[in-house]
Design brief:
The chain is mostly beta strands. Helices cover 4% and strands 41% of the residues. The chain contains 2 helices and 10 strands. The strands form 2 sheets. Strands 1, 2, 3, 4, 6, 8 and 10 form a 7-stranded mixed sheet that branches. Strands 5-9-7 form a 3-stranded antiparallel sheet, with no helix packed on it. The longest helix is centred in the first third of the chain and has 4 residues.
């Protein structure tokens, strides 16, 4: 299985799928970056197997005092998959797993690994609010025949800030990493 790294102010690391997997499906690394500040501005996202997801800054007021997913400035990112060949004859669903050494104990978010902000990390969501657990295979909704085709398909997720410090958050930048792997089930 190929793994690529993506660097973000918050970086995600993908793990291994627990289900039966195919070792010939590519993967990569996503980097997430963001900042907690008293102002906000737009930031762009790089494309490629290894890429960075830059989140627009959020204020401490937007982060709030309640632990959980912050819906302000969620940043959508898209992975285009094509030519995903499987050695399994009955491969049906393309799955993705995100892993990282910076995953929280409850596997809901990435801790800030090298940034200066405190109490705020990065969560991955399917729709800007529903978290994806790390180290677990997630169905992409892409069938094997489509993923294996030349045209392929797009798979989208969101990077969200995640308040894990409650009212004890500190402003600063957030940097973390994760890897992702695709597998057939």
């Amino acid at each position: 299985m190929f793994k690529k790294c993506i660097v973000v102010t918050s970086l995600l690391v993908a793990g291994q799928a627990i289900a039966a997997t195919d070792s010939n499906v590519a993967g990569g690394t996503i980097t997430f970056s963001g900042m907690v500040t008293d102002t906000t501005c737009n930031v762009t996202t790089n494309k490629g197997a290894d890429f960075t997801v830059d989140l627009a800054p959020v204020t401490t007021e937007q982060v709030g005092v309640k632990p959980g997913v912050v819906t302000h400035n969620a940043q959508k990112f898209t992975l285009h998959v094509s030519g995903c060949k499987s050695s399994k004859e009955n491969a049906s669903a393309l799955k993705i797993t995100f892993s990282s050494p910076h995953v929280s104990d409850d596997e809901k978010y990435l801790k800030n690994s090298t940034g200066s902000a405190e109490g705020v990390g990065i969560a991955l969501t399917t729709d800007g609010s529903k978290t994806i657990d790390f180290d677990k295979a997630v169905d992409t909704g892409v069938k094997a025949d489509v993923a294996g085709s030349e045209g392929g398909a797009d798979v989208s997720f969101y990077a969200n800030y995640y308040n894990y410090g409650g009212s004890a958050i500190e402003t600063g930048n957030i940097v973390t990493t994760a890897t992702y792997t695709f597998n057939y089930e």
